[in-house]
Amino acid sequence: MIKILVSNDDGVTAPGIIALTESLSADFEVMTVGPDRNCSGASNSLTLTNPLRINRLESGSIAVNGTPTDCVHLAIRELYDTEPNMVVSGINAGANMGDDTLYSGTVAAAMEGRFLGLPAMAISLVGKNLQHYATAAYYANKLVKRLITHPIAQDQILNVNVPDLPLSEIKGVQVTRLGARHRAEGMVRTTDPAGKEIFWLGPPGEEQDASEGTDFYAVANGYVSITPLTVDLTAFEQIKKMQQWIDKL
Q: 26 to each of 4, 30, 119, 141, 143, how far by Cα in Å?
C-alpha cells in the first residue's frame, strides 16, 4: 500500500493537518509527524544543538520538539520501517504564496522530502476566517493520486494554495508562478511588563505583483493555485554572464 508522510508547520494538532490526515487515510497508509507547537516561519531550519524527542499521541500522530524540517528528516530516517512513497505538508492555516514561500515551514517540510528523494507537495488554505479545510483536503487527495500515476520532475515540488471556499464554489485549478509583495512594514517597537524594549515583526507588505498568471491572482479569483517549485536554486541562465562578470575583476 502507498505510504504517505504528512507533516506541517502549524503543529501536529492543528485542524489542517487533522483534515489532511483524515482525507489521505481513506486511500493510503498515513504517518503524521509534526512539530509539538506552531513553527510558522521556520523555513528550512534544523535543530542542531538540542536533542529531538518524540511524543506518540492517542490519535496515532507523532509530535516532535523540533522544526518541520526536523520532523520530515526524523520520520524518513528513523521512524519508518520502510521509506514512505511521498511527503505531503499542510494543510497550512493561511497562504504560502509569492515571497512567503521562502519563509514557510510548510513548504520547507515538502522540500526536505524532496531533498531525501521523495515526491512532495505543500498545501495551504487561503482566507481570513478559515473554515473550509475539507476543500483543501479534497484537492490534496486528488493531487496525491495524480502524482503517483504521473510523477513530476525529480527536482520539483508542488506548492498548492486553495481558496477558503466551499468545494462547489471553486472555479477550477490554475498552474501559476509566484507573485511578489512590497517590502514588509517596519518592526513594531514596544515594551514588556518590566519596561524593557521589545520588537515584533511587522505585517507583510501588500501584493506588488498579483497580475494574471500569479498565485495571488488565481486564488483571489476563486481558483486553486498550483506552482511548481524547483529545489535547485541555481540561476542557470546567469552562469555565463556571471563568468564574464568575474573575469573583469
A: 12, 9, 20, 9, 14
C-alpha cell at 33: 509527524
Q: Distance (Å, rounded) from C-alpha 44 to C-alpha 89?
A: 13
Phi, psi (deg, nearest 5) at residue 63:
-95, 140
pLDDT at 41: 87
List, in sequence order, every beta strand (DSSP E) within the chain: 3-7, 29-35, 54-56, 62-64, 86-93, 120-126, 156-163, 172-175, 180-181, 188-191, 197-200, 207-209, 223-230
CA distance to 156, 230, 244, per residue, from 239 (Å): 21, 17, 9
* 150/89 Cα distance (integer angstroms): 19
Q: Which pTM value belongs to this model?
A: 0.91
Residue 199 has a pLDDT of 81
> Within its chain, how far is the Cα of 25 from the centroid?
20
Average pLDDT score, the chain: 92
User: What phi, psi does 59 have (nearest 5°)?
Assistant: -70, -15
